[in-house]
From TrEMBL:
This is Cation channel sperm-associated auxiliary subunit delta. Keywords: Cell membrane, Cell projection, Cilium, Developmental protein, Differentiation, Disulfide bond, Flagellum, Glycoprotein, Membrane, Signal, Spermatogenesis, Transmembrane, Transmembrane helix. It is found in: Cell projection, Cilium, Flagellum membrane. Residues 753-788 are annotated as: Disordered. Residues 1-15 form the signal peptide. InterPro entries: CATSPERD/E, CATSPERD/E_C, CATSPERD_beta-prop, Ig-like_CATSPERD. It comes from Mesocricetus auratus. The chain crosses the membrane at residues 690-709.
């Protein structure tokens, strides 16, 4: 809600000095160098303005008749800021400025944006802006994490007073190095003039200030506020909009004639210096607004600005020209508001709280999906007082909480201590908010959490509200690993020393498909094993259905065994594995995705980005655009509500898998990991089909059985005798040609003895004698039995 700050005045003090002035004059002992060539910048407004770098408190920009940039909080004399002639700015009128990430200052000069690196003293012009702009908006985040960096890099550039929706609006996601056009479709529903466009990170919203017929109104572009608007307020002249840095949702809209503020979830302090040189200090609480005149200043207001350097510490800065040197001096006056208000002449009620502290301040916490966060604060009231503590979140659409206060012992003087316990989690999981109020659980968000005293007095200047930032998004400390209790190394199958020494293994060309190719492999693939990343492979029996056990680790501590949906793929293209479930047995209600769904989009994209939580669609929900047409198709998702498993084919060896979590409701992080398995127990592949081998084996056994029966019986017949005699003659003929007589003779004797012994016992004795004589004769004459 927008409130007129000057609406209520609680007390007015007598005019009295509140600080002692001192003059900063340095570097003027020797003759200084002349000013650089170029155009001197100046502020387009008649009002002076000081902008402080939220992340680097000593870096300060002064906007007035001249522009000064100080890197030591104006503790030295400075020349005015000059933009080089090469920038071709024309009239060097500055309408807006913003401290971007790093050491970059962005300035809107003569309806164009210029970038100035104050560390290297280099000017440049960002790309992408092709039409006039008047203002640039953004917010700074100083925590060292990716989410904070993305917030700081998000900027808008626009022309205030442009007609919506046709006026060009530009955005940057890289801190102002380049800009892009904002799609007109996002502002098509507006038909007034543009008062400004801003990132309201504390609400995870983009706010558009639309002005129609002397009324201003904020509209929002993101769900769930995209169909609602803020409360209208009077807008008869252009208002400058100041976003208090730190993502607390605090706005100031002001001009020479009006001052409005939107505190969102914070109590605030505000200082005013009027043209009549009156200095005011105000504080708006939840039960009322107080404003105190601190003093009537004895200074010229034309080149004077005021700014807070810290809570309750107000700095009044005046530029002082030196006719003998090009550098300017600065008159400084620091006001300790708490000390001033303790003067009895103000007759202000003392603060009703002695202590309010917590370890949560100046930190940024992260709540991932399905996670909770517990915070606490300690409060000690002044004796005899019963202050009312308040817990507030700036973005209740994404972040919900429960708070409890308990008595927490006593101080040494017998005063009570109280502990405020706060439990936070996503609003979606509390289950008490309307679905139209709750933001999408799939969308990252940010919110501030503030602990303050609802009824604290204006004298509680030093009692800062306890405030911290909560990122509802990816927890960067969260990682996943595949459990490895039984490895090929621990079982003695592989040697870890060999694995670390450039170990290689071969993948048969029949077992893999080359990555990014549809055709089969032509040659075997030689792979170097990455022991540093994979360790020893897990041991898996080839014919046993298996799935990896996935562990979730946070800050080096095992948090849980993951049960979310995930997919795996062999990074070298091995295809000798399958899955135990089909679309039908997995109870799919629509056709499930599989790796072939994304194969056409593979190209040169990293495998880790192919199938992920952003493009995963569950088959357990009805989908008229993708009905279940092939129920026997392989179901390739593991984990979640099914017990799907991997079945390895008849191949022993190493497999290296990439595992990616695709469940969009498990974590905001893109969780993935690589692991390896060693498959064992598979017999070599048969040369012939099993059916053919079994058939041949059975026929051979039957034939052998028949021959074992038929041959002895056949040999006892006359035909069998002739066959035996023929065989004997054949052997004698072959060995008779051998030069080794002793071999030949030995074989003959053996054949003879075997032949004789094999004769049937029914042969007459006379015939046997005759046969013996014929054999003896043939021995001496060399004649064969046929000749005889």
């Amino acid at each position: 809600m927008l409130l007129l700050m000057l609406a209520a005045v609680a007390a007015v003090g007598r005019a009295q000095p509140v600080c002692s002035q001192r003059k900063v004059r340095t570097g003027k002992v020797f003759t200084s160098e002349p000013l650089a060539r170029g155009d001197q910048l100046f502020h387009a407004s008649t009002t002076t303005y000081v902008i402080r770098n939220f992340c680097k408190s000593n870096v300060v920009l002064y906007l007035g008749k001249k522009v000064f940039l100080s890197k030591d909080n104006f503790e030295s004399s400075l020349p005015p800021l000059i933009i080089p002639k090469s920038m071709l700015v024309g009239v060097a009128s500055v309408t807006s400025a913003f401290f971007a990430s790093g050491t970059v200052l962005l300035l809107v000069v003569n309806e164009k944006i210029y970038s100035y690196n104050y560390l290297t003293n280099v000017w440049s012009k960002p790309a992408g802006i092709s039409s006039p702009v008047s203002h640039i908006s953004g917010d700074s985040c100083c925590f060292n994490n990716q989410f904070c960096t993305e917030l700081s890099n998000s900027l808008f550039a626009y022309f205030r007073g442009g007609q919506l929706p046709w006026t060009p609006i530009y955005f940057s996601d890289n801190g102002g190095f380049s800009f892009q056009h904002l799609a007109r479709e996002r502002v098509d529903r507006f038909n007034g003039t543009l008062g400004g466009i801003f990132y309201f990170h504390s609400m995870s919203q983009v706010g558009v200030l639309e002005v129609i017929k002397d009324l201003g109104m904020f509209h929002y572009l993101e769900h769930p506020l995209n169909n609602s608007a803020g409360i209208p307020f009077e807008y008869k002249e252009p208002l400058d909009v100041i976003i208090k840095t730190g993502h607390r949702g605090f706005l100031i809209l002001w001009s020479q004639l009006s001052l409005l503020v939107s505190p969102n979830a914070d109590m605030y302090e505000l200082a005013l210096l009027t043209e009549e040189r009156n200095l005011y200090y105000g504080s708006q609480g939840y039960l009322g607004t107080s404003l105190v005149q601190l003093s009537k200043m004895s200074l010229q207001t034309e080149d004077t600005s005021i700014s807070f350097t810290d809570t309750g510490m107000l700095e009044i800065l005046t530029v002082v020209a030196d006719p003998q040197f090009p550098s300017f001096d600065f008159q400084k006056c620091v006001v300790n508001v708490q000390t001033v208000l303790m003067n009895p002449s103000f007759d202000i009620e003392e603060c009703n709280v002695e202590l309010l502290e917590s370890s949560m301040i100046n930190q940024m916490f992260t709540i991932d999906m399905n996670s909770k966060l517990d915070l606490s604060a300690l409060m000690i009231p002044r004796p005899g007082k019963t202050p009312i503590p308040l817990v507030m979140v700036s973005n209740p659409h994404s972040l919900g909480f429960e708070a409890h206060i308990i008595e927490f012992g006593n101080t040494f003087d017998g005063n009570y201590k109280y502990k405020l316990e706060i439990e936070l989690q996503q609003q979606h999981h509390w289950g008490i908010a309307d679905t139209n109020f709750t933001a999408s659980i799939k969308r990252n968000a940010i919110s501030s959490v503030t602990v303050d005293i609802a009824d604290k007095t204006i004298a509680c200047v030093d009692l800062k509200p306890l405030s911290t930032l909560i990122s509802v998004g990816c927890d960067q400390t969260k990682k996943i690993l595949v459990q490895n209790k039984i490895s090929a190394c621990s079982m003695g199958i592989l040697n870890p020393v060999e694995l670390q020494g450039n170990y290689t293994y071969t993948i048969e060309k029949e077992a893999y498909y080359p990555i990014n190719h549809n055709a089969g492999a032509r040659d075997d693939l030689l792979v170097y094993y990455q022991y540093k990343d994979l360790g020893c492979p897990r041991l898996v029996y080839y014919d046993k259905p298996w799935k990896p056990v996935v562990e979730v680790w946070k800050n080096g501590i095992l948090e849980e065994i993951m049960n979310a949906e995930y997919v795996i793929t062999e990074v070298n293209g091995i295809v000798t594995y399958s899955y135990s479930l089909t679309a039908a047995t997995a109870n799919c209600r629509s056709q499930p995705q599989n790796w072939s769904t994304f194969q056409t989009n593979l190209g040169n994209v990293d495998q880790m980005s192919i199938w992920n939580r952003e493009n995963y669609v569950s088959c357990h929900e009805d989908n008229k655009d993708n009905p279940l047409l092939w129920p026997e198709a392989e179901y390739q998702i593991l984990g979640g509500r099914t017990d799907n498993r991997v079945i390895f084919g008849q191949r022993n060896g190493i497999y290296t898998f990439l595992l990616s979590v695709v469940d969009p409701y498990y974590s905001y992080c893109s969780l993935d990991t690589m692991f390896s398995v060693y498959v064992y127990g598979a017999l070599p592949m048969a040369m012939f089909p099993p059916v053919l081998s079994i058939t041949l084996l059975v026929m051979t056994a039957l034939l052998s059985t028949w021959l074992a029966y038929a041959i002895p019986k056949e040999l006892n017949t006359e035909r069998g005798q002739r066959f035996k005699n023929s065989c004997s003659w054949l052997f004698q003929s072959c060995w008779g040609a051998c030069s080794c007589d002793w071999v030949s003779g030995g074989l003959q004797r053996r054949l003879r003895s075997r032949r004789v012994s094999d004769q049937p016992s029914r042969t007459p004795s006379g015939q046997r004698d005759q046969t013996d004589r014929l054999s003896e004769a043939s021995k001496h004459t060399g004649a064969s039995m046929k000749d005889l």
